[in-house]
Amino acid sequence: MLTGALLILAPLFLGFAIALSNRRLMTAIHYTVEGLVYFILALLGLGLGQMEGLLDQLGTMAAQVSGLVIVLLIANLAGLWLFHRWQPMTIDPDESEARPGYRRLFLAGMKPLLAVLAGGLLGYFLWSQLPLVDEIATAALMLLLFLIGLQLRNAGLSLRKLLMNRQGLGIALVLAFSSLLAGVVLIPWLDVPWYQALALTSGFGWYSLSGIVIGDALGPAWGGVAFLNDVLREIIALALIPLVIGVKPAMAIGYGGATAMDFTLPVIRSSGGLACVPVAIASGFLLSFLSPVLMGVFLALG
């Protein structure tokens, strides 16, 4: 497990250490990352499809995902509500914009699910014994993490300024702490060692990473559970943000987790106004950095 953790952290920090200024290169990296995400998610699905007794395990996986989603929802919203009481954040309703097309967002959210489904069908019906799937997935994951490190370093964001954004920093820390607390509560339900439970609750909505990392360390079944848990967080966040951001901005921004700096950001901006954008970016960036670090550390303890 220690080797696996180093494989997670080393390329991420290596990429973060390299500064780039070529816009064309960064654009190419962006599209490469997007392609790699769907490729690795398809490999995750392929691994699921190749599992012996997959159909018998679906009920157990559904129960595990349900427990994760429900307990994390309660713990995260409770923690963020308390943070809002301590550090209230107000927004100007006049700054809100027309809401983005939810149909487009829904279709974008379906893409990773379709990638996993396609891989699962191929693994179940056609390639049940395809060799080197794990090795290819691991190599692709290392490349993905290196490129993500490059993206985080060269996103035009000052780490110092992000850390000085008290609202964003506070939201990120509360979301992370309440998620880990939920992991402790879920240990009996998931029936796994404490470090694995904490790893499962450290995805913070970053499904394209959590499903891959957890699947690589604990097997395709747990990778599928981690993936579905974080995909459902994103879907719930899209519905929750417009409802609560006007009265509890911290809850709306925080529950989106790592996606607050990218996928859910348009909804945060349109529903909460421009004042929410720097907070969301700071929170999402910090959670994006914390997620692989925490997963790597907890998985190394095994």
Protein model, in words:
The chain is an all-alpha fold and 302 residues long. It has one domain (2-300). Helices cover 78% and strands 0% of the residues. The chain has 13 helices and no strands. It has helices at residues 2-16, 23-50, 54-86, 102-125, 133-153, 159-164, 166-190, 194-200, 207-218, 220-244, 249-255, 265-272, 276-300. The model has no long low-confidence stretch (mean pLDDT 81).
Write the layout of secondary structure elements.
Layout: H1 2-16, H2 23-50, H3 54-86, H4 102-125, H5 133-153, H6 159-164, H7 166-190, H8 194-200, H9 207-218, H10 220-244, H11 249-255, H12 265-272, H13 276-300
Helix pairs in contact: 1-5, 1-13, 2-4, 2-5, 2-9, 2-10, 3-7, 3-10, 3-11, 4-10, 7-8, 7-11, 7-13, 8-13, 9-10, 9-13, 10-11, 12-13
Structural class determined from secondary elements: mainly alpha
Number of domains: 1
N-end to C-end Cα span:
6 Å
Major sheet characteristics? none
Protein name: DUF340 domain-containing protein
Transmembrane segments: 6-22, 29-49, 61-84, 105-127, 139-157, 169-190, 205-228, 235-257, 277-301
Keywords: Membrane, Transmembrane, Transmembrane helix
Pfam families: Lys_export (PF03956)
